[in-house]
Amino acid sequence: MKRIASVLALSIAAAFSAQAASTTRYVIISENNGKQTGEQVVERMDDGLTKVRFIYKDNGRGPELTEEFRLAPDGTMSSYHVKGNSTYGAVVDEYFERSGSKAQWHSTTEKGSKDVTGPAIYVALNGSFEVSSAAITALANTPDASMPLLPSGTLKQVKLDEVQVTSADGKSTQTVQLLAQTGLGLSPQFSWATTGDKPALFAVVIPGTFVFSLDGWQNNGKLLAEHQKAAEAKMLNDLAAKLQHPLEGLTVVRNARIFDSEKATVGKPSDIYMLRGRITAVLPAGAPVRGAVNEIDAANRIVLPGLFDMHGHISRWDGPLHISAGVTSLRDMGNDNAQIQMMIDETSNGKLLGPQIVPAGFLEGESPYSSNGGFVVKTLPQAKNAIDWYAEHGYPQLKIYNSFPKEILKDTVSYAHERGLRVSGHIPAGLRAQQALDAGYDEIQHINQVMLNFLFKEGVETRSLERFYLPAEKTADLDFNSKPVKNFVSFLAKKKIVIDPTLSTFAFLKQKDGDVNEPWAPVEGNMPPDVARNFHVGTMKIPDAATQKRYEKSYAKMVQFVGIMYKAGVPLVAGTDDIAGFTLQSELEFLVKAGLTPSQAIQIATRNGALYTRTSNDRGSIEKGKLADLVLVDGDPTRDIGDIRKVAAVITRGSIIFPKEIDTAVGVRPFVSEQPVVKTLESVSSSIAGSNDGALRRIGVSARERD
Which of 127, 64, 110, 52 is nearest to 90 (CA)? Predict the structure, then answer.
């Protein structure tokens, strides 16, 4: 990762000069393999100033920050300053100051001020966990554990659990509490804190990812994770029970204009019958209803097959957002294996609201740039062992990552194919995409990995941020009519190599700091204030207008290239790798921008999703015998793809779910005002019951005897 090393070194040196009263160190440990991936060092000075150095590195990227702040008597920050670089290298330089009732802030993204009465917590756009620690202490000393946020919003804190932990050397014990904060983001934020009058941050656990812990106490990560999973499960179970409305008995969706995912057309109004989560019949609208218990009038809405997000890294809290967007199936492209297995089980039994997960087995090699999910291997026997585990656990696909040893790539792919797994991934360091395809890849993830096929040269480290900066710099000059480019596209089409471009995610390549990132412009006004505010934060280090223009041109050509591939017959899938739900909707818009029709884009998110997850037998189209995964949409997304956001209802796994209810629960302003009504056909139910009673009476069985 490129850094302004000399400036950062001076900042760190200044931050840890004289006057230190106490030093506290935290470490970040990968939950998958126990490796340290970062640290936070906090020094509290004699004059009341707190100085922090924070660094986190995983997958060849991560933030480096130095910050300092002072606290007011109420525990909120009276002044704050952070400098450094964000995950992808953007410059971080943010200030906040409050004097009396006047609060002011300034960063590379924004400048603002506000008159404030009473305590208020400033939300930093880029900050360390020590900022969270200060908020924990401040909230604990308010009567209702609630406080206004700056620039806007309210932060609330509740205690969920308590557990005793033991230090790594076994000499000390203490009690820590699990806290949940709401008011930031689209899901609760969980942290572990000390107890007492002034609780402070003890640990942050991201199950399946990492444990951020007070140094000397990181041995408690597994214990804390288990307690946190249980506490989260209760909250998630309650949410699922509230938002899922079971459709018991035969249900008919009347007057539905069904999207035919094979022909990419919309048919005449039809009635769709469902029982126990499967479609039992599709009949012309108005056909006689025989024995239905529930009736839903689609009112001539477009009804789509459940959508596929083909590139997720799902968490337990992502599920409702996916469902709200009409995503009923998700291909997970790399996760902690235990975590994803747990989520599959929870979703299957209805305790977790979310799409049905089709997992891809993550396979990485060891290096300083390694991503620490799935299996990390060095040798072919280790790779085969991982493939065996994935095959035995029902994974239909393998995903190979950046640091995988290129020397064993061909044999690994061959073995995966022998075990019945498709193979996709990033291109291992030191190779071009064509070489990975020659080794047997069936699919490539991300448009930047495709572009690197033409841009890669020996000596370029594609596991670093260069895998983003090189395509941003050089794609603008690529000649798509050149023989190498045409030959590559022809090869992709001939071999039916699938491309998962994730265009929406890569819009960050050209975002100007301070402007809203293009995928989020249509939804910014519906989002909670803090979420919308972060849409304006630039990701890349873009030093001047000329670079900005160049990156914009490069990204536009990436979008264009996806259209070129599609027209040549290269199979595409719709994947995201970003904010749950909303990103898929943006991805379909970018496919249309690439030259596809709205209907073709929806076809990719339905038929192609089923085809390349090997689930076409029960998903991807609305047909008798298939799963009743239905998405009722207001407007007509086959004409205006933006209407894909107007999801009025989703039916999946035998329940109907209303996005309006989900959006309201997570603080999003709903995208639809009306939702379909589920009508219980009492007269039908009564007549059936009466007939049964009569038959039973004829054979001499009374109602009391039946009980």
Answer: 64
3-state helix, strand, coil in the chain (%, to 5): 35, 30, 35
Residues 6+ apart with CB under 8 A from 561: 447, 450, 451, 480
* Same-domain check for residues 566 and 489: yes
Those residues with Cβ within 8 angstroms of residue 381's Cβ, 6 or more apart along the chain or in another chain: none
Say if residue 191 is in the same domain as residue 310.
Answer: no
User: Tell me: the pLDDT tens digits for 57-88?
Assistant: 888 889 999 999 999 999 999 999 999 999 88
**Residues near 90 by Cβ (< 8 Å), separated by ≥ 6?**
108, 513, 537, 538, 539, 540, 541, 542
Chain centroid to CA 297: 32
Please check whether residues 213 and 132 belong to one and the same domain: yes
In a domain, 464, yes or no: yes
Same domain, 225 and 320: no
Range of the domain at 138: 5-165+173-243
Write out the two tokens for 250.
């035969």
Residue 197 inside a domain? The answer is: yes
Among the three residues 217, 243, 269, which one is the final residue of a domain in this structure? 243
The candidate with the shortest Cα–Cα distance to 623, out of 297, 272, 309, 276, is 272
- The Cα 111–Cα 513 span in angstroms is 12
Angle at 650 between CA 648 and CA 652, to 5 degrees: 170
What tens digit of pLDDT does each residue of 579-606 get?
999 999 999 999 999 999 999 999 999 9
Give the pLDDT band (50/70/90) at residue 525.
Answer: very high
The DSSP string of 441-469 is -SEEE-HHHHHHHHH--TT--TTSTHHHH
CA-based nearest residue to 346, from 332, 356, 337, 336? 356
Specify the DSSP class assigned to residue 392. Answer: H
Q: 10-57, pLDDT tens digit by residue?
A: 444 444 444 568 999 999 998 777 889 999 999 999 888 999 999 998
Angstrom CA distances, 39 to 16, 25, 60, 123, stand at 15, 7, 16, 21
Question: Is residue 394 over pLDDT 90?
Answer: yes
- Under 8 Å between Cβ of 93 and 72: no
Asked if 597 and 238 count as a contact pair (C-beta separation under 8 A), the reply is: no
Domain boundary pick from 568, 589, 615: 615
pLDDT of residue 706: 25
Q: What is the pLDDT of residue 682?
A: 60
Question: ω before 519 within 30° of 0 (cis)?
Answer: no
Q: Are residues 322 and 239 in the same domain?
A: no
* pLDDT > 80? residue 220: yes
Q: Are 326 and 304 in contact (CB under 8 A)?
A: yes
User: Strand runs (DSSP E) across 461-590, as ranges?
Assistant: 498-500
- CA dihedral angle for residue 618, residue 622, residue 625, residue 628, rounded to 10 degrees: 80
Phi, psi at residue 500, to the nearest 5°? Answer: -110, 85
pLDDT at 58: 85
| Cross-strand pairs, 678 | 296
Rounded (10°) angle between helices 545-567 and 483-495: 40
pTM: 0.90
Domain tally, the chain = 2
**433-459: pLDDT as tens digits:** 999 999 999 999 999 999 999 998 888
Q: Are 225 and 163 a contacting pair, CB within 8 Å? A: no
Displacement of CA 86 from its chain's centroid (Å): 19
Average pLDDT, the chain: 91
CA angle 55, 220, 228 (to 5 degrees): 90
pLDDT of residue 459: 84
Using the structure block, give the residue that is written with the tokens 């009347």. 254
* Cα–Cα distance, 636 to 500 (Å, whole number): 25
Helix locations, 509-581, DSSP H: 529-534, 545-567
Give the C-alpha separation, 470 to 447, whole Å: 12
- Residue environment code for 380-403, b if the CB has 16+ CB neighbours within 10 A, otherwise e: eebbbebbeebbeeebbbbbbbbb
